[in-house]
Structures are given as C-alpha cells and as structure tokens.
Write a structure and sequence with these properties.
about 270 residues; N-terminal domain of MutM-like DNA repair proteins; four-stranded antiparallel sheet; 10 strands; alpha+beta; homodimer; DNA-binding; Helicase, Ruva Protein, domain 3; about 20% strand
Chain lengths: ~270, ~270
DNA sequence: GACAAGAACACGGA
DNA sequence: CTCCGTGTTCTTGT
C-alpha cells in the first residue's frame, strides 16, 4: 500500500538521518525477498558509507560509496523505520542495517516485497523499466504519454512501466477529482480531461506529501502522516454519498483491483 | 515471417529507388491495418517527397520531407514490391503509393500487418518501444541485456522490446549454431554460451543479408533471396539428422511457436 | 476463502 | 511471436 508520497517522505527522512554513516551489521530474517544469497549482503555492505537515498516510484534506493546500491520495495505493505542507538528491532523485522554509531533501520514486510542488492552499474529490470516520475512531468509530456495508447486509463496509470508510483489508494481520489471513470478508454479522453487528470495527479500526490503522506502508513520515524479521510472524497466510502452530487458511491471492480466511484460524476460513457 | 534481414534488404532497395520521388496517389484496400482514417493518408501524402527509408527490426520506416512518416510491418507474411512505370498492382494489393513519375510500390499482407501514418514527432508505441538492433550491439552490450533477466532465452530473443528483428525463422539456426536449447533459463547461461549466442546472431543475420535474405520471401524487386536450405542446419528438417552428431532432429513446442532442435547438441540441462 | 502487487504466461481481437 | 491489452495464476500471511 505505500505509494509515491510515502516513499518521498521516507527517502527525505532517511537522507536527513543516515547520510555518511558507515554500515556495521546486516541482519536478514527473510531470504526469499533477496535477489542474491544473504552472505553477499554480509560481504558487500559492512564498511561502506551511505551516499544518498532517493525514491523511485514505490521503491527506496540507497546508494553507498564504493558502488553498491540497496533497492527496497515494500510490496503490499510494510515499513522502513529508524532504529535508535542500541534499540532492538521488533520481532516482525525482515531485514535490518546497523551503522557504526549504533543507530540503524529495520524493514518489515507484510507480504511480497523486495530488498535487492546491486552494483550501481548493474541491470535491475524491476527499476530500470519504471516509467517517468509523475511529479516531474509537465502537462504536455503527460499528454504525450497517453498519445496513441490503448486500454483503460486506470490500468495505464497503475502500470509502473508507464508512470511510476501511483497505486490503488491515490488513483481513486485522482480519478474522482478529475471526474473520469476508471474504465474509460485512453483514446476517448478529451484534451480537457487529460489536463484535469494531470492536474489532479499533481494535486493529490503533492497534497499528501505536504501532509507527511498517508495516515494509514508509518514514516521513517514510525509516525503516521496526515493524509486521511478528510482528504479522501469517495475512497472506502461504500454506500456513502458523493460530495458533489449526493449520488450513492459504488464499489466496482477494475481488473484485479476494487475501486469506489461516483456513478454520476464519473460516467463511463 | 519477414524478419530483420529481409527488412534490411528491402529498405536498402527502396533507398536506391525511391528517394526524392514525390507522392501522387495513395490506394487503400484494407483500412483495418491503418492507424487513422484512410482519408488522412490521402490528405497528407500526395505532394510530399520521400526523404529516407530505414528498417527498424521487422518494420520499414519511410520518412517524407515535411514531417510525415509511414511505418509498415508485414506481420505474419507479406511483400513490399516496386511498381514499374504504369504497371498495375496485383489484386492482392492492400496498399499502394504511386509517385509523379508513375512508378510506385504496393504492399500485400497475408494476415495481420500494419501500415501506419504518423508525424515524425508523434508517439508510436509499437516502434518507440523496440529493443536495440542486434547488429549494432557489441558482445558486452548484448551480455548486459541478459544480465538479471529471467525466463527462457528463446522468449527473450523473440521479444521485440528486448532486441528487435529476430523471429521464429532465424532463431532456430541461431540457437542451434550456438548449441543452446530454446528453453534454457537466461540465468543459467555461461559467459561462453552468451558469447556464442552473440556471435551466432551476428553470423546468421549477416549471412542472410549478404545473400540477399531468405529464399522464402520476395525482396523489393520481387526476387527471392539466396538464404535457404543450404544455410539452414536443422530448421524444417523433422526426422532428418543433426549435421554435427547425427542425432535425429526433433520438433518441439516453445511457447506458441514450434522449433526444430538437435536433442543432443542443444541439451536443455 | 479473500485479498493485494507484480511477473509470467495464456488468451482473444485486430 | 505479430503485437496489443487483458485475464489468470502464482507467490504469502492474516
């Protein structure tokens, strides 16, 4: 469930906290989410210094001096949390890094997630093929992305290869605010609708970032964000009513995901 | 069935023949392979001059002065053939361009194919997402393409988004000459095998180009190439014997395609 | 059993 | 494999 805004916040907090620290220990409790043997992590990480942390869609990327990189994806849910000096990590910890100053961080994963170790110059198909960052797009470049594309708009926006970082939580608010039905054909969208959509992607994601991200997730310091029910027009309000037209909110299926919509404001046409 | 070598030859012949000619007429007999209404072709093409023809994997790209571009993919089989002065085009013609000098060319398609008209600066997802040209790769860059990729080697090489222009005709010879089973996992290939594979991709494709491409296809002047049974070790020789070890050649299924292999030389491991 | 993201694979449509 | 989009399956743990 963590999406772009959560990752932006976590990356920022990690940058403020971890830059320059030298890795002392690596602890691994769930080897299945790794891309190489656990002993490679033990071999390459101790002794190296953190250089820069960034977010890439739903991924956190930790670059170390000397050429290695850790790529973390929390999958359907999880946390990356700072570990205070000498604090023990919780039982649910799947992975932890500890630094020479005895601080560190731990990672929990509910279901599927990845903690991959690569050289910076190594191919990593899951992140190399991500689409552009929605917050770095201009309206023109966003509309260009949609040009000559087929399929439903929701599938497109959730496809990380097309545009990175949007998941099933924020998409609902984005589409509602743009008054676009999730199953609309891309080719049927008007210029006006595409502009709306662009604007609402920016608005919703930036609003969440400015509020410290979702109140359903924990940030790097274990705190909840402030983007919650007050910001959400229709998501998770089945049987409630549309704030615009008072129609009854419906829950529909879109591919393998569910979505709340207003059947009037978001006409499928 | 036309693949990279056929397209290289056709593009070369079109370049020698058509550059600078000015379009007079467009004839369309099968609108379903177009990406826009037939009348757009009539509107944008007459009066413009051909600038350059190139091949992109299995596509032919015709650039015109003034910003338009025609993209042709013959799909499962077809021809692009020069039309002599005042020659009528055959009944099976699906598309034809005629120039002011009364020469031209026609396109036939067996089944599915595309004849798309775009502005040069317009998105065209089918060609924008093609992988690199195999004949422009170095061995190092080819091996890099395979790094950290999962799945079977044949699927990878046939996937036009990974590497462009290889189809089910040439892949059989390439894999046999490299002694690699089509279902081998990419991650299991040794350095030596990847080098072999690279070498054989280059060898087979270049050999076909130097022979004027496949003898099963027609070039731009309606002639067959010389790359045929003499060059093919095991393809389409079910029940025959391997030229290396005399084992009986087998026909196996690989995904949705069939493939002839030597069960001894191309061990699946 | 439902659920969720993503990858791999199969399917139908053009 | 001709290519697209979409559907299914598989993963895992509550």
């Amino acid at each position: 469930m963590p999406e772009l805004p959560e990752m932006v916040i976590i990356a920022k907090q990690m940058n403020q906290t971890l830059i320059g620290k030298v890795v002392k220990d690596v602890s691994i409790f769930q080897p299945k989410c790794l891309n190489r043997p656990a002993k490679d992590y033990q071999k390459f990480l101790p002794g190296v210094q953190t250089e820069r942390i960034s977010s890439l869609g739903k991924w956190i990327r930790i670059d170390f001096h000397g050429g290695m990189r850790l790529l973390i994806n929390l999958g359907m849910g999880g946390e990356i949390v700072f570990l205070k000096r000498n604090q023990n990590f919780p039982d649910k910890t799947k992975f932890a890094l500890q630094f020479r100053d005895r601080t560190g961080f731990f990672v929990t994963l509910w279901w599927f997630g990845y903690i991959h170790l690569v050289r910076k110059d190594e191919n990593h198909p899951m992140t190399d093929t991500l689409g552009p960052d929605p917050l770095s797009l201009t309206c023109e470049s966003f509309i260009k992305l949609l040009e000559n594309r087929r399929g439903e708009i929701k599938s497109f926006l959730l496809n990380q290869k097309r545009i990175r970082g949007i998941g099933n939580f924020y998409i609902q608010e984005i589409l509602f605010r743009a008054r676009i039905h999730p199953r609309r054909e891309i080719g049927s969208l008007t210029q006006y609708e595409m502009k709306s959509l662009f604007k609402m992607i920016q608005t919703v994601l930036n609003e969440s970032i400015s509020l410290g991200s979702s109140s359903y997730e924990l940030d790097f310091f274990g705190e909840k964000g402030q983007y919650g029910l007050n910001q959400i027009s229709i998501g998770y309000r089945e049987g409630g009513s549309c704030p615009i037209c008072q129609s009854q909110i419906e829950k529909i299926r879109t591919g393998s995901t569910a979505q709340f919509i207003c059947p009037v404001c978001q006409k499928s046409i």
